[in-house]
# Entry
Amino acid sequence: MALFRSVATVGGYTLASRLLGFVRDVLSAAIMGAGTVADAFFVAQLLPNLFRRLFAEGAFNAAFVPLFARHLEREGKVSAAAFAEQVLSVLLAVLLVFVCAVQIVMPVAILMLAPGFAHEPGKQELVVALTRLTFPYLLFISLVSLLGGVLNSLHRFAAAAATPILFNACIIAALIFAAPHLPTPGHAMAWGLTLSGILQFLWLIEACRREGIRFRLPRPRLTPEVKALMALMLPAALGAGVTQINLVVNQVIASFLPSGSISYLYYADRLMELPIGVIGIALGTALLPLLSRQLAARQETQAMNSMNRALELGLLLTLPAATALIAIPFTLVSVLFQRGAFGAMETQATAWALVAYASGLPAFVLIRVLTPGFYARHDTRTPVRFAVVTVIVNLALNVTLMFWLRHVGLALSLSLSTWLQAALLAITLHRRGHWRADARLISRAPRSLVAAVAMAGGVLLAQGWLAPFLLRPDTLRYAALGALVGAGGALYAVLAQVTGAATVGEVLRQMRRAPGESPRQAG
# Structure
């Protein structure tokens, strides 16, 4: 399957999930607002999601996918499936012990994660109660990561990419049907979160069965292959999860800021997650198994070409998203979230945080593309060194900027430290000869930037024309926002064609291209 087609598959399902996620966020903003219950739930979902991204999505995929792909490429599906079964049994045993242990020490864990909550009566107790409801989600979603890694290595991206849709559907259903019958809306969302993990696990078990892989549950054993996986996972846990570590640092510091600060950062991050998910996660998900199989087959030239095309596509799609978020943040936040308990003050605070986050959006996506260049070569240690540097820089910037910019300073420090991480990854790959920007990438990237900036100017003008509709209290404002976003996308497509950043014919050829095939071969 062509890289572009794989990215389109993952990105399409992710887009559907993110749009459903906005429905979820609109409901949660209207029902919970940005106060005590909202802050408590966002911390409660942060803890299982942190461990999921550090040890499941991040470290696990970084270590498991290249090893599974090597089994698949050199020994066939039967050997690869046996390896996956070994890993599944060990992972399940470790997760059961870990989840039970954390449930016991949950009050201490929450005190470390949000120490500022202890000064507000009842807030810390609420966070502990909600986190005990959400933490079992880690068990199921970690197993989902394993199953997704298996399917992605088989170039079956759709089923795993669709799992977040189940997540959002469960949260929405919980808000609508369960919230009126529970102590707070946060309790309803916490139950919905854990239920979604169970449903995602069952969904992917069935998807694997359709691909001819039926998982047994052998006795957990630390075989040499499992030990090799663990050796790769340990450093990758920090390297792949540096963004999450930085977010936790921001969370701890934000807990000392005025009430609502964590919620402002959360809602701004939700808008950022749309392009990061549709573009960055899609690229990283499709690129890692492709690179792993190309390098296992000793196709170095094809692997280099795959990285350059992924970087080109990432910049082509990310730059317009970043410039648009910076150009019209107040319009986006007000139309999507301003209602009920979420007022004009919350809109302004969230919009400024969004501008700060958006300045680092291209770096977030570049990291998703560059990191597989290390993981596909079984190098999970190098990103760790950069992770440590990035966390230290982020913390220093947090302490400095929060005094002048409060929560906006926390968002800006994360963006700046992310740019540093992307630069370190790119420079190291280049020095090792694992990546060199080819002439096409060097030519196309500046053209994408020019088209994106021009598009942002056009969106600003269109925002003025549509202002009477965007400010309406009824559903017409959603139509106006949709028209504004659609017009911006159409304008960028035209500008990309005019500047030579991309052409329609090129996109069609990419959709037909086989993995690793060069542009010359395809043409």
In short: Residues 53 and 241 are 6 Å apart (CA to CA).
